[in-house]
Amino acid sequence: MNPYLAVAALVFVVSLMFTLPLVPALVELRRKSDARPLNVVQQNSGEIRHFANSFRTYLKGLEPIMQRCVAAGTTATASLPDGEEYVVLGRADKPLVLALQQRDATHPVVIAAGLDLIVPPEATFSKDIYAGGQFTGGDQNNYRAILGEKDVHLGASSRAMRWVHAVGEFTADLGCRLYGRISSDSLIRLHADCTFLRLNAPRIEIGRVAISGDAVPSNSIIPANTGSGMSRRFLHDGDFEVQSGQVITNDIVIRGKLHIHSGARICGSVKSVKDMALEDGVSVEGSLISAGKMRIGPHCAIHGPVVAERELAIATGARCGTLEHPTTVSAPLIEVEEGVAVFGTLWAREHGQVVISQ
Amino acid sequence: MIYVLYIIVFVICVYTGRHYWFTLNRLFGFQRHPYIDIDTADWPPVTVLVAAHNEEKVIAHILDALMTVKYPEDKMLVIPVNDRSTDRTREIIDKFVQDFPGRIQPFHRVEGKGGKAAALKDAMQLVNTEVILIFDADYIPGAGLIKQLVAPFFDLEVGGVMGRVVPLNAGTNLLTRLLDLERSGGYQVDQQARMNLRLVPQHGGTVAGVRLSALREVGGWNENSLTEDTDLTYRLLLNGWKTVYQNRSECYEEVPEVWPVRIKQIMRWAKGHNQAMMAYGPRLLLGKHRATLRERIDGTLLLGVYAMAPITLVGWALALGVFYQGVAPLHGVIALLSLTAYAALGNLAAFFEIAAAARLDGTRKRISLLPFLILGFGVSIFSVSRAAVSQVSDLVTGAEFHWDKTERFRKVL
User: Among A192, A302, B91, B198, which residue is least crowded by beta carbons within 10 Å?
Assistant: First the structure.
């Protein structure tokens, strides 16, 4: 082989090897097909009612039809501007008829009722539902989303796939599966065997709850000593126990396991790097955070946010937050017994379960 | 010479292993976002410091954004820290103070030592809340960001919080696109993996927060540091406080659009980081304090990332040297050096971390720009090495460090 040709071929092959990986890069640089900044939703404040509010806005165009149907007691069907089919119901004093009469039927239309709405059992609603009045669902129904301007009641063993918002009270009977965001402007009540992910309401009751007002003094969580800027935390390496009836006036950070015995009172916040257990009647005025598992015993009262990085179990009679000072209770896995009240948000990132109190 | 080369190759391999560990953790490990779900709480009072030095191009954007965030108005005070600006920054701030009475308290600094840390230190006289958030003036916080950055402070172990930085001007040119990729790797993978593994997430000094009591306990802002954020990260760690990273607390920033500005920026970072390495490295690794063993090791490696650039250059030179001397190094050592060199510079964002980050961000096509990172890598390795050399010569001559403000590219409103 001609040595010049060989050198030229070598140079060519090497150049090609060097250039080839750059071809897609050069094409992308020129076309800028993926050059926009990452999508940071500037207006997203994590508002749980976001979808409900958007749906209400979306339905604004149906208001005149709804008013007409309510006035005349009639039903209307047509399509929204985006092609979505809808049914507007003017009356709902008995379980819906028309297309909803068959069991196991699937209803792929947006349903908007100007007044109360009662739906029969064992049906699947694959589009969003709006109820201008109370919403009452039969047992074993499947819903995509519901917006109720008054109370919303789901029958036993029903499933809500995306979200439900009730301006009034929200109630889920035995064994409901609540997969998305459930919110209410007044009260959420879940019965035994329900599962949930994200709940938000001024008051969330699990089963029957006897509310006896604020169980905890309502101090600010990060206290207003803030001006002094001096930490008042007690930091301990290793496991730690707070004895029965003991009162601790500091914040405590435990770099091990923490066990708080019954009746103890912590006038600050608590953090443990490993598992944490609270026995009967413990009260914590600040936050309660565990990097492991957490168990909150019966009749405990926690004022601030409760976060467990692994699992959280809450026993009957426990209270988290108050009406005046709502809070967040959060963990990937949450097991909550009947008789628990949470004021604010109860958020199980992976799975939340209502269990019968022992 | 050959033994020095072996040591360098070993150190580079350690960094490479660390990057693989982080990337695999991010892709397949347990992800920690413990505070992100706190959306309802008795929110504490918070002071938002906005560091501004000749920021007429951008200051209105951030003040505008801060006035619309979802945080109780009576519990949030914004303090623009106007550090000796000679442009219209003061005028713009004062207009906002008028328009939003009681919500903005300006701090106009007309004299004193230069630099962000010095300005923040002086502004502390106005701060009386336990939670302080810090933004540079070119950032644009979203509606939910303040709550997200405040939430970790309910954890009494947390002294500092860091959010994620996202370049707004990513598509401007090749440099901004490369910086966008680097930021993605640095935050989406590196910082979040350190959070997952309970190592040492780094406080970035912007889109960040600090607890007042922790700050006071560690001695306040260090005005002699070129990177007050790195400095703060280590002082918090040495005093038993944690810095946590919130990957979902994203905030837009502006990245440099021209190479000279980028070079200046990275040289300042390198100098500041090396400063912190000298000040805290030995104590962190060997001293008596509350950091865990894994924090000691990771913290030390993190302190060393900018030192890796000159070390890599020395490694390459030694490899050439031993080759021409006819010394046969241990089998495969040179190949190992070549293989790991690109991965070694953690802070310049190793390629596979960036690829993993782009995958996690769902930005598929920008991965094709990865080969161009060789350019950014080349510029960085020489700039960082130059910074290290100049730092050593400064030490010898006793010259003082000086602060270089990063130029902005947005149009004046």
Answer: B91
